[in-house]
Amino acid sequence: MTLGDIMNPATPLLDAKTYLAVIVGAYEIGTHYSDEYKTTTNKMVFQFDIPSVKDASGNPVQLSKWLNAGRKKGCKFIEFFNSLDDKNYTEAEIRAINPERYLGRACQIRVTINAEKQKNYVESVMSLPDGVPAPQTSTKHCFYSVQDSGFSGAKWDALPGWVKSECEKSEQYRKNPPAQPLEMPEDEAPPEPPQTPEPDEEDCPI
């Protein structure tokens, strides 16, 4: 036995280049406090399939783009939508956009590598050039908004674990967590199911 036998295997990194991708997830994950900047920001995450690259299970590799909502011209939030739609949106036009409409949108993503953290990042997103066939994927689309749906219900239950975890870090969850079921007396409680270890940050596929 060596230490490598009990360490989680590293996720293979993608080459740093531009890939054709499809938006399969759009998540408004609430308001988050930044210890670094001492301020709160509303956050969104867009999840991409890269159909040309498959994981060990044969599914498209996925990456995500994290955005802090902003309204100033030139901020990364507005530039994301400008580049994705090949437009120059005004603040009023951006405010009227329903992010759910981007599910299934084919695009290009520029992927970079953070050598220190050994992780891929989506540096930028662009519309498809004219004449380029759109990539295809069968991944089920998913949209979620903390603002609209809170932290319970069928939509919440169907979310990927990593999305739930990020939503639970929000100020909305901290101030108004969902009611937890009452604990039953030990002599009436059902037997505990087998425990499985919670995945740590390195296990997140995104």
Q: Per the principal axes of the C-alpha atoms, what is the gross shape?
A: globular
Low-confidence spans: 192-206
Q: Order of SSEs, N→C?
A: EEEHHEEEHHHH
Q: Which radius of gyration do the C-alpha atoms yield?
A: 20 Å
The N- and C-terminal alpha carbons lie at a distance of 30 Å
Number of helices: 6
Q: Total number of β-strand segments? A: 6
Major β-sheet, in short? 6 strands, mixed
Structural class: alpha+beta
The helix fraction, in percent, is: 10-25%
Q: Roughly what is the average pLDDT, rounded to an integer?
A: 88
Strand portion, in percent?
25-35%
Task: Detail the topology: elements first, then pairings.
Blueprint: E1 18-34, E2 39-54, E3 60-68, H1 76-85, H2 91-95, E4 106-114, E5 119-126, E6 142-145, H3 146-149, H4 154-157, H5 161-167, H6 171-175
Parallel strand pairs: 1-6
Antiparallel strand pairs: 1-2, 1-4, 2-3, 4-5
Describe the protein in words.
The chain is α+β, with helices and mostly antiparallel strands and 206 residues long. It is built from 6 helices and 6 strands. Strands 1, 2, 3, 4, 5 and 6 form a 6-stranded mixed sheet that branches. The longest helix is centred in the middle third of the chain and has 10 residues, at 76-85. Residues 192-206 have low confidence and may be disordered.
Compose a concise summary of this entry:
The protein has 206 residues and is α+β, with helices and mostly antiparallel strands. It is built from six helices and six strands.
